[in-house]
Amino acid sequence: MKILLLEDDIQLAESLGEYLEGMACNVDYAHTARTCLHLAKDNHYDVLILDIGMPGMSGLEACHKIRHDLHLSTPLLFLTARDTLDDKLLGFRAGCDDYLVKPFDPEELWCRLNALAARGPRRDLGIQTFGELTIDYSSRKVFRNQQAINLHATQFNLLKLLIRHSPEVVSKEQIEAELWGDEPPDSDSLRTHMYRLRNQLDKPFSHSLIITEYGKGYRFESR
Amino acid sequence: MKILLLEDDIQLAESLGEYLEGMACNVDYAHTARTCLHLAKDNHYDVLILDIGMPGMSGLEACHKIRHDLHLSTPLLFLTARDTLDDKLLGFRAGCDDYLVKPFDPEELWCRLNALAARGPRRDLGIQTFGELTIDYSSRKVFRNQQAINLHATQFNLLKLLIRHSPEVVSKEQIEAELWGDEPPDSDSLRTHMYRLRNQLDKPFSHSLIITEYGKGYRFESR
DNA sequence: AATGAGATGTGAAGTAAATGTCACCTAGGC
DNA sequence: GCCTAGGTGACATTTACTTCACATCTCATT
Lengths: 223, 223
Description:
The structure is a homodimer. By secondary structure, chain A is an alpha/beta fold. Chain A has helices at residues 10-22, 33-42, 59-68, 85-94, 106-119, 153-165, 172-180, 190-201; strands spanning 2-6, 26-30, 47-50, 76-80, 98-101, 127-130, 133-136, 141-144, 147-149, 210-213, 217-220. In chain A, the strands form 3 sheets. A 5-stranded parallel beta sheet of chain A has the order 2-1-3-4-5, with helices on both faces.
């Protein structure tokens, strides 16, 4: 597991880093938010651990930049002494996935890191690439092999939904529920939307990204 | 957001449920682990909230069953009064994604639920390997020696069932009961399904994974 | 060892349901 | 008043499951 650790307390950084390396992790160290951002931009990490309180740019700000400027959806955990409810809410609002208060048990941290890493990046923000498909959630644009794919709103939402659940199969009922909520169309126009989405996304290419699981639903497969 | 809440304290379940419904959530309630498992099996939830301490089956056990028997990778959060490190470690070992100790702030819970729901299914769950056979429950794919095996729904369920009971022999009656419930087919089409499953799974290979015990039933053997 | 009855394997064919396809309609925005 | 996105419904196609008929196997009994 590749980890980026932002912690200005050198002592703590070292002892924690030693523990993690003992768990067969590859740890990169940042002692300021600035270097943290640089490292996050240039490398891939399975999970980020950020302290909040430090001189200069705070961890909160770093997290916000990671999410909104770098468009990274890497799992992120705040490790901080700030323990009030408001601190935590700020942390989650900045875009973290977990929040652990110092002092902490390294073993608990280890469990949480594993749980985060197992889930992978968030599926709903930034720009993401799955094989030959690239999707930009903020500008709602989709590319396959650098070739722009023009999707209507519903079809985009449909694709987004399938990706979010990938590689799991999503039943038609569930898709309808997520797409239309309580007032689904009378006819099953989902079939039509799927057809249109595929015409754009799969028809011009040699293999399909959307797979039908007969009787079960649909599934997105990125290869 | 669709939520399943397992909590035997009716008071707490109600007040928490009310709060979540106020956040535009659709909440299903379970007061025992047994109903929790049934609901989780038959419905799709974005996140599961489980209490641990309760009469009968514990939340830990329920979590374990959700992961290993139902093969669901739905995000799961323990909400419990048990606050020792060992309790938490047990929770994560059972397969949870987050662990929140009572008493808790509903707002923090809400943040954590959102962070969980934003992520896709776990990648480390849902894939099992037995010898040369690999089965992916989330995408419903099966491989033998890296070679993809294409199975229809019933055959997949059949294989799943045999694996679940392996290495024990499962009688035809029991298979029919588990596969079709109260309305089994008139003829014993189970033979045909078994035949097809074997054609895919065993025929191209030198030794069989499915063994017939004459007069007893069938059994899966992984070597 | 021979035998026969029940258990199991094999495979073709029929059928109902799920899914794909597409032209047209409607409502709402510009 | 057109344009566009999405809904509707009719029809075509595909799929998976059941059913059935027959072959083959297994084992207890002779």
